[in-house]
Design goal:
With about 350 residues, the chain is an alpha/beta fold. The protein is built from 14 helices and nine strands. It has a seven-stranded mixed sheet, with helices on both faces. It starts with a helix and ends with a strand.
Length: about 350
């Protein structure tokens, strides 16, 4: 179990015991006893019967009793998943009030027990949506966050804008960039870009074999495997030659490890226990991998640039670092905020020689 072997997890001694997989505070017998009580007092479909709404309410109470974050949302996702829906809100009235079968109740209970062990709901379900794509998920591969969708949007907007600004583009051509993603994880960024830029090609790399395998699986499921080249490689040990498969790169995009090492121990138990901590830990200043990417960029890029998701403290730090390395000929062109108003995304441009 990862959460017992990583050095940071020594600090988990101060966290609730349900953080550790298999160590939930509520035993199975206690859950069943609570369920029997709930059946007697709360079920809307009659004695001994439970509807989807009943199950959401029941497991919400169990999750709240055990201190599980987002108790209602977790319960709704699990119940709707078993019923074949993306969200609980999308279920029709008939489905909501029809008694669940014994098999459905058993499936909900099995998945809910995983959530009781603080497993992220994305891993519990084994899939998650990113943009318009449904991607397979499994631990310890990094789970894509909603704000990272904005990173994809910035790359797409930049490629479309480049064609619109070109006086030679008549009619306006479809962008067909060569994109390099560093740290592909589940393939969320790379595969979204392939869908939104239909003529693009992507080189996706990750140092973790589990991530490479999951990106490959998701690419095949989405029938995008012909336009993506997936490399199992650590960027810090990678040469430019390995990455110039289709010639010079138009865009480098990455959601690299950027959390300051001192902040790692304060992450939620779901993250510490199940996700790949190396995909999060950016070293003392959070810029260990960021610096590697920027140092490699000039030998790969044509004239476009690098798009990075970073910590809100990083824009000034990156700008100062680039000023201290003028030989790279890179300039911080733009800083974009996330939906919380925090500076989160950087566009770094290669200077014209």
């Amino acid at each position: 179990m990862r959460c017992l072997t990583h050095p940071l997890l020594r600090k988990l001694l101060s966290l609730p015991p349900q953080c550790v997989p298999g160590q939930g505070t509520l035993s199975k017998g206690a859950v069943l006893s609570l369920k029997q009580l709930f059946l007697r007092q709360n079920c809307s479909a009659g004695p001994g019967l439970m509807t989807a709404t009943d199950m959401v309410n029941y497991w919400q109470k169990v999750f709240e009793t055990n201190g599980i974050p987002e108790a209602r949302e977790s319960s709704q996702y699990i119940v709707s998943f078993v019923l074949g829906a993306k969200t609980f809100q999308s279920l029709d009235s008939k489905t909501l009030h029809t008694p669940l079968t014994a098999l459905q109740q058993e499936q909900i209970q099995r998945l809910s027990h995983r959530r009781l062990q603080r497993m992220p709901v994305q891993y519990v379900l084994g899939e998650w949506d990113f943009w318009d794509l449904t991607l397979k998920m499994r631990p310890p591969v990094f789970i894509p966050r909603p704000e990272t969708e904005d990173l994809v949007s910035l790359v797409v907007e930049e490629e479309l804008q480049k064609c619109e600004n070109s006086a030679l583009c008549f009619p306006v051509p479809v962008p067909h960039p060569v994109i390099l993603e560093i740290g592909c994880g589940s393939g969320a960024i790379a595969l979204s870009l392939l869908c939104k830029l239909p003529q693009s090609r992507v080189i996706a790399m990750d140092k973790e074999e589990a991530a490479v395998d999951l990106t490959r699986e998701n690419a095949h499921r989405l029938q995008l495997q012909e336009r993506i080249h997936i490399i199992h490689q650590d960027v810090s040990h990678c040469s430019a030659k390995q990455l110039l498969l289709w010639g010079p790169i138009d865009v480098i995009v990455s959601n690299p490890p950027y959390i300051f090492h001192e902040d790692m121990a304060s992450l939620d138990a779901e993250i510490l226990c199940y996700e790949d901590l190396d995909a999060l830990d950016g070293g003392d200043d959070g810029m260990r991998v960021i610096k590697t990417i920027l140092a490699l960029a000039p030998s790969l890029l044509k004239v476009s640039g690098v798009f990075l998701e970073v910590d809100p403290r990083h824009p000034d730090m990156v700008e100062h670092w680039l000023q201290a390395h003028p030989d790279l000929l890179l300039t911080l062109r733009a800083i974009h905020k996330d939906f919380c108003g925090k500076p989160r995304f950087l566009h770094i441009q290669k200077q014209s020689s």
